[in-house]
Amino acid sequence: MLVQNKVKVDKLLEKGVPVYLYELTYPKHADHTDDLFYIMGVHPFEEDENEKNIGEVYRTMFTNFIKTGEPGIGFERSDLRTSSFFDIYWNETTGARPKMRTDFEEPIMEYWTREMVHYDQTISKMKMGPVSPVVRSFGQPIGTSVFPLSNVLFLLLPFLAGFLVARYCCSRSQRNLYIQLDGNDYPIKNI
Asked: CB–CB of 75/86 below 8 Å?
């Protein structure tokens, strides 16, 4: 989700469209669509003090944007060159507050938009490259084998040994023993 959002933001910025990009990084509730709880004020969880403040930031930010076209509270437009975004995080203990940051998810963006594109182009070039002809011979020269006799014997010997043991070492009555497996403790029956 975040790669396609960033790509869309970059395309809009290239066309001169004003864009505001934010990211909720509060670790307790920062999953997909969790910000809707803060915007709407309906929570399926007990809010702590940090979350109450984050909710206030969201409501102020969206209300300002609806009224004026700008979210305010230090939230500035995104910049294509610096990849700026508004980091929504609140921590009463450390004093951390929402603020503008740069290099939006840089390691992830680098991987998906540059490294993987380069990898895909390299693989595509290899697949589209010239195909070298392969000469195949359907007949094998005398004295060689595709599947050597030793492999056949290796596979056949355990099967033969099991067959011979079952055939000559077990009496006929022992070969037809069946155990009922229905959960009850029945004696073994000879059929």
From this structure: yes
